[in-house]
Amino acid sequence: xxxxxTGHGGSDTATMVIQAETxxxxxxxxxxESLGYEVKGEIGSVDVLxxxxxxxxxxxxxxxxxxxLTLLQQAVAxxxxxxxxxxxxxxxxxxxxxxxxxxxxxxxxxxxxxxxxVRADGTVEVHADPGPFQPRKSxxxxxxxxxxxxxxAGDPTQGGTRGQVMTAYRQDAQRLRDHLAxxxxxxxxxxxxxxGVGRATAMMAANHYGWFERVARxxxxxxxxxxxxxVEVTVEATSELPQPxxxxxxx
Length: 251
Description:
3-stranded antiparallel beta sheet, Trna Endonuclease, Chain: A, domain 1, 40% helix, Arc Repressor Mutant, subunit A, elongated, alpha+beta
């Protein structure tokens, strides 16, 4: 499938303010005409439709002032007409804008859509051409997910949770904290044997949660924060125990 070439859209205005979809039409039309397309707007349900001599299929561009679900739905619907479907939006601003654009660019590629952006000076840039997408698998990421799945005890966090997640690392840290709360300062090797956490020494040295402190070479105990959390956990566990029933007189 032939792609397009980045170039100028042919706007006569040095700088323009893009406030509506029609502001995108002139630059996009001029750009396509420079590539040999005859272009017309609003043909049926299509924002921009182009035909080029020698090409069997037309080219479609859907215009929007920003990425949205509606834009993607419209563009996917146009794929029933032709494989050459692009979306065109104003060029991003700043790093946050680029990050959002980059995410939407990846989504469009997965949908087989082309992507254009229009600068304030009328320059049209093509970031992706339409075509089939084959996602690249990451063995490293898959291995990391598999390792976390195997290491995590039980299923402590519901899917969709926002905020703190009970990871396998945190579970191990809790085991170390609870052991030190009962046994007091210990050597790392002793804590590893008692808890079954092989990386105990490294975890206490890293002190990711602020619960541990080194009291001597190779010996670790609980910090003030760790002691406070340990007390809170003990109180919560005690409050959840079933309370004995009190018999009243005459019962």
